[in-house]
Amino acid sequence: MRLMRLWAIVKKEVLHIRRDRPSLVISFLLPVMMLFLFGYAVTMDVDEIRTAVLDGDRTRASRELASAFAASGYFKLTAYPVSRQELERLITSGRVKAGLIIPAGYGRTLARGEAAPVQFIVDGSDPTTARTALQAGELVARVHSSKLMLAALDRSGKTVPLTAGVDFRSRVWYNPNMESARFFIPGLIGLIMQNITAMLTAFALVRERERGTLEQLIVTPVRPAELVIGKLIPYVVIAFIDVSLIFLVGTFWFGVGVAGNVLLLAVLALFFLLGALGLGLLISTVTRTQLQAMQATMGLILPSVLLSGFVFPREAMPLVIRWLGNFIPLTYFLEVLRGVILKGAGLDLLLTQAVVLVAFGCGTLLLAALRFRKTLD
């Protein structure tokens, strides 16, 4: 091995790297971006769980119990429904993750020195958040009961029965056993749909450009819109086949069936696919090689996994990171998947997510088509 020849090869490769500016920029920016995302988003410490309080007693005692939950730091009281039906809608739609039901007569029962029952309902579709909510709720109720008994002892000077205080009764909805499979299987459907469609379409046009066949397509009578749609249709079919396979495996092997409307799920999945396809086309219009397309696609996939709530609960993320997750379509599609599959939610409860998916799907695909048309000129 001669050092002169080795040095010549090193210089040649350095020149290639310098000329490939997009890959060079991505190679430096992507690790830093991933470090910040992992550092802030990867956490299982859940706090400020969105909670609704159905106060049927409306006394000082019931308000003190609700305040105890808010003061714990684990719960954020965001809604005060006036009926059980309204509370159920809030939990099913995902607007809250837990519900505290204080029945009428709660204060009078405590005043008699008896156990006053309250019900605590938890959305079990996210097992991590559900476990934290259950443990924190039981702890808050136990501590509050101890304070009530000590206050009663100070007032009367008599021994208070240990059974007095708050009778905390918890229930887990949609996933009573808090099985991880019921949480991850719906999420995998959305993640696989996005990854396959975005990656394949990002490579499709770049591959044509590298092989020199894109110019041949340009000079043919085929219109740009026809070319784009013709290239997208096979990937839509591939994605739906993959989704069908996942549904079959999830239903018959893992026991995760669809509780809601399958047609609604398919329609919203189509618009989500259009958005993923549009992102892939946008990547293909700004990259020149398959390596650049791969790097750009990974830069899209990793934030989607971390910030969308696929693995890590969004309640545990800082406000800025949670805000960034609102710009990721997978965030809304995961809510649709888990809402329809696990909770049986309808369009009325998922209207916001549906509007975002339709707007993003149509807008991204239209932008990608316009951008691609410019490259044909």
What does this protein look like?
The mean pLDDT is 81. The chain has two domains: 49-173, abc type-2 transporter like domain (abc type-2 transporter like fold, 3-Layer(aba) Sandwich); 179-376, no CATH class. The protein contains 14 helices and five strands. Strand 1 (49-55), helix 3 and strand 2 (75-79) form a beta-alpha-beta unit. With 377 residues, the chain is α/β, with parallel strands linked by helices. It is elongated. It has a five-stranded mixed beta sheet with strand order 2-1-3-4-5, sandwiched between helices.
Short description:
67% of the residues lie in helices and 9% in strands. By secondary structure, the protein is α/β, with parallel strands linked by helices.
Widest β-sheet, arrangement of strands: 2-1-3-4-5
Largest β sheet strand count, sense and barrel closure: 5 strands, mixed
The computed structural class is alpha/beta
| SSE string | HHEHEHEHEHEHHHHHHHH
Strand content: 5-15%
Number of helices: 14
Proportion of helical residues: 55-70%
Integer count of domains? 2
Mean pLDDT across residues: 81
Head-to-tail CA distance between termini: 50 Å
